[in-house]
Amino acid sequence: MDLRFSFLLFLFLQAVSGLLLAAASNVAYPSVVDTGAGDCSVSDGGDGSLTPIRREVYDNGRIIDISHRFTVDMPSWESDEGLGQFLWLPKSMKNGSLANNSEMKLPAHTGTHVDAPGHVFDHYFDAGFDVDTLDLGVLNGPGLLVDVPRDKNITAEVMKSLNIPKGVRRVLFRTLNTDRGLMWKKEFDTSYVGFMKDGAKWLVDNTDIKLVGIDYLSVAAFDDLIPSHLEFLEGRETILVEGLKLDGVQPGLYSIHCLPLRLLGAEGSPIRCILIK
Ligand SMILES: *[C@@H]1O[C@H](CO)[C@@H](O)[C@H](O)[C@H]1NC(C)=O
Ligand SMILES: *[C@@H]1O[C@H](CO)[C@@H](O)[C@H](O)[C@H]1NC(C)=O
Ligand SMILES: *[C@@H]1O[C@H](CO)[C@@H](O)[C@H](O)[C@H]1NC(C)=O
C-alpha cells in the first residue's frame, strides 16, 4: 500500500474512533442517576432532550444483564444505611477542568461480586489467590438457572432434591431473596437464604458445579456464614458469584458470562455477569 495513502487511512480511522469515543462518553458518564428498582429502558422525550437509556436486556432479550447497578441505596454488608456515596468528581468541567474525572471507593464485596479463595483462608490470601487468579473458563460457559424451594435454606437435602445432572458446571440458584427483593432494599437483612454448611459440602462432594451463583450478598446463609464459605473455597476450584439480579428471568439453560476486575491482591471484586440465550 502507498505510504501516503496508508497514512491518510490512519488519520481517517483515528477520526472515526474519536467520533465513536465522543458518542460513547455520554453513555459512560450519564448525568442522570437513577436509583429506582424498576426497569428503566428507553425514554426519549422526543423533544431532543438528552436522556440516557438504561437497559436490563439487550438485543431483543437475547442478552440479559444479571448484574445490579451500583447505587448509593444498594445494600451493603451489615449496614442499615446502604452503600452510600461511592463516586466523587475531583475534576469537573463545571469547575473548569477539561474533562470530568471521577474517583470511586467501595468495599470489594459490593453488589454483584465474586469471592476468591483468599476471602476466608488467610494462607491462600498470603499465597496470592486473589481475584486475578480466578479461572475465566469457569466464569464463562453453559450453565443453569434453577429455582430452589422457598421454605428452606440450601441444605444437603435441598441440593439432593434439585437433581442437578452430573456434568453441569455452572448453576445460578434463585431463592426467596429474589421474591423478597432483598437486593433492592437498602437495609442489610440477615434472614436471607443461602447455603448451610451441609449443603455446600454436598455440592462440592457430589456435583461437578464449579460456578455457584446466588441472589443476595453471600452464598452462605448468615447462620453458617464462615463454615459454608470454607466448604466452597477450600478446594480452590469453586468460584462464588454473589448479589446476582435474577428477577424475571426464566429458569433454564444459558450461556453465562462473568468478568471480574483484575485487582491484584483483592479477595473480592465487583463482577459484570450476563446471560445469553
Ligand atoms: C461533567 O460533570 C458535570 C458536573 O460538574 C456534569 O454536570 C456534566 O454532565 C459532566 N459532563 C459530562 C460530559 O458528563
Ligand atoms: C467546584 O468547586 C467548589 C469549590 O471548591 C466546590 O464547592 C464544588 O462542589 C465544586 N463543584 C463540583 C461539581 O465539583
Ligand atoms: C435461612 O437462614 C436464616 C439464618 O441464616 C434465617 O433467618 C431464615 O429464616 C432462613 N430462611 C428460610 C427460608 O428458612
From TrEMBL:
GO terms, biological process: L-tryptophan catabolic process to kynurenine
Signal peptide: 1-18
Principal subcellular localization: secreted
Keyword set, alphabetical order: Extracellular matrix, Secreted, Signal
GO MF annotations in UniProt: arylformamidase activity
One Pfam assignment: Cyclase
Entries under InterPro entries matching the protein: KFase/CYL, KFase_sf
Gene3D superfamilies linked to this entry: Putative cyclase (3.50.30.50)
Localization (cell): Secreted, Extracellular space, Extracellular matrix
Assigned protein family: Belongs to the Cyclase 1 superfamily.
Name by which UniProt lists this protein: Uncharacterized protein LOC111486103
Gene coding for it: LOC111486103
